[in-house]
Amino acid sequence: MVPTWQLRAAFARRLSGMYGTEVPAYTTLLEVTGQINDEVAARDPEAARLGGPGRVGVERHGAIRVGTPEELRQAAQVFAALGMHPVGFYDLRDGGEGAVPVVSTAFRPTAPEELERNPFRVFTSLLTTSDRRFFGPDLAARLDAFLARRQLFPPELLTLAARAEAEGGLPDPQAERFLTLAAAAFALSPEPVDRAWYAELERVSAVAADIGGVTTTHLNHLTPRVLDIDALHRRMGERGITMIDRIQGPPRWEGPDVLLRQTSFRALAETRTFREPDGRLTRGALRVRFGEVEARGIALTRAGRARYDHLMAETDRRTVLRPGADRQQTARCLWLQGFPGTEHQLAVSHLAFFTYRPVPARPRDGRRPPADLAGLLTHGWLTAHPIVYEDFLPRSAAGIFRSNLTGAGRHDADLAGAPFDAHRLSEAIGRPVADPYARYAEQQDRSLRQALFTLRAGAALRALDHGELIDAEPVPAP
C-alpha cells in the first residue's frame, strides 16, 4: 500500500514537475527560493522555529478554479484521497474595484503530524454564477449550460479517489494510475478556446473567463515557501522576471513574522489555440497563470486577527491621505506602535497560537505553578512554540488575483450579491468546511493541557477548564 501522505507528497511532486514544464519561469522561482532558504538557514538558527528545511523545502500550495458545486464535490473527493480537507471560507467578491466572482476554500491536511509530513494545500475557488452583480440572467443561464456539459474529473479517477479515502491509501499499481489521472486533470489543455465566448466572460472578469471559458480546469499557480520573501522579490527582478508591485500581507518589520506574506511574478502570455466565430483555428495568447511565492508566520487568534485587520485598514487610510508616501514604511511604523514585538507578548496577550511544553523539572523552592499563562511563561514553568499559519488571507489572495488580471472587469456593486457563507459552501462540497481558528485552538489547548498535567498544575488546569487561562481578554489595540 502507498499510504495517504505518500500519495499527497507524490502528487505535489508531479504537479511541480508538470507546472515547471508548462511555465518555465516557475523553475527559476524554485531555484531562487532554494538558494535563499539555504542562505537563511545557514545564518539564522531560529529559522527552523516555523518549519525546518525538510518541511519548507517541499512545501507547496496550488490553486485551481471550478465552475459548479458538482465540480467542487468531485475535486473534494480527489483531495480527500490525499488526506486534504476543506478549511476556511474566503469570499473574494467584495473587494470593490477588481472584485472577483468566486468564493473559495483551501484543501489541506489538518493534523499537525500530517502537516509536518507534507503540508500540501490547494486553494480552490468556485464561480458564483448566481451573483447578479457580475452575471445577468441571460449570461448566467448560458454559463451554467456550458459548465453542465463539461467533465473535469474522469469517473475512473473518482472511483480510485473514493477507494483511497476509504482504505487510507492504494496498492502500488492503482496508486500510480491515480496519480497519473489526477495530474492530468490539472494540466493545461491543448483544446481550442472559443474566442468569442471567452471574450464575453472576460469583460465581466478574467477569472470568470479562466473558469467558464474553457472546458477543463488547470493549475492557476503553484507556490513554494521562502524564508525571506523580500530578498526573493528583489532577486527575481534581478533575473529579469517582472514581479507584481508589492508584497501582499503584513509589512517587513523587526517583530515576529505572522500570518502570510505573498508575492508573484506577473502572469505570462501563454500561446493558446482559439476557435474563431467562423470556425477557423488561430493562435493567440492568454495571461491567466502566474508564479506565486509565500512566507508563512505565526497563526493569530481572532483577537490577533482583529488587531492585524485594524492596522491594515489604518495603513490604507494613511496611504490615501498621503499618496506619495511609501506604503511599506507607513505600515511598518504602525506595526511598531500597535503590534506586540515579541512572541512572549503575543502569547501572554492571547493574540497568537502556540503549543506549550513544560520546562524540565528543577528545584523551585516548593513553589506551586501560577494559574495564569503569563505567570507560567514569565517564571519559566512553560515554553511557547509558535504554530505556523497554514491558511490564507482573502485580502492578499484578491490582491494577487487583481495584480495579475488583464483588466478590472465589471460588476454592479449596487445590486445585492448572492448570499454565501461557510455553511453554504459546506453544503456545496458535501463535506464540512473546518474553522481554522478552531483547529489552531484545539492544537494549542491539547498541548497546554498536557503540559499542565505534567506540571500537575491543578489550579491552572481548572482555570483552563473555565476559559480563564487562554481565553482571557486580550490587550486592547492602541
Please provide a brief summary of the model:
With 478 residues, the chain is α+β, with helices and mostly antiparallel strands. Helix content is 46%, strand content 15%.
- Tally of DSSP β-strands: 14
Q: How does the major sheet shape up?
A: 5 strands, mixed
Percent range for β-strand residues: 15-25%
CATH architecture of the largest domain: Roll
Radius of gyration: 24 Å
* Strand order in the largest sheet: 3-4-5-2-8
- Which structural class do the helices and strands define? alpha+beta
**What's the level 1 CATH class of the largest domain?**
Alpha Beta
Average pLDDT figure: 88
> In angstroms, what separates the terminal alpha carbons?
56 Å
- Count of the domains: 2
What is the fold-level CATH name, i.e. the topology of the largest domain? 2,3-Dihydroxybiphenyl 1,2-Dioxygenase, domain 1
CATH superfamily of the largest domain: Uncharacterised protein PF07063, DUF1338
CA-based shape = globular
Task: Give the uncertain stretches in residue-range form.
Answer: 471-478
Alpha plus pi helix count:
19
Helix percentage: 40-55%
Organism: Streptomyces nigrescens
EC number: 1.13.11.93
Keywords: Dioxygenase, Iron, Oxidoreductase
Family: Belongs to the 2-oxoadipate dioxygenase/decarboxylase family.
Task: Please render the helix and strand layout as text.
Layout: E1 2-3, H1 4-22, H2 24-43, H3 53-56, E2 60-66, H4 69-80, E3 85-91, E4 102-108, H5 112-117, E5 121-127, H6 137-149, H7 155-167, E6 169-170, H8 172-185, E7 193-194, H9 195-204, H10 206-212, E8 221-224, H11 229-238, E9 260-265, E10 270-275, E11 281-286, E12 291-296, H12 302-321, H13 327-338, H14 343-348, E13 354-358, H15 373-378, E14 382-386, H16 394-403, H17 422-429, H18 436-455, H19 458-465
Parallel strand pairs: 2-5, 7-10
Antiparallel strand pairs: 1-6, 2-8, 3-4, 4-5, 9-12, 10-11, 13-14
EC number: 1.13.11.93
InterPro entries: HGLS, YdcJ_bac-like
Pfam families: HGLS
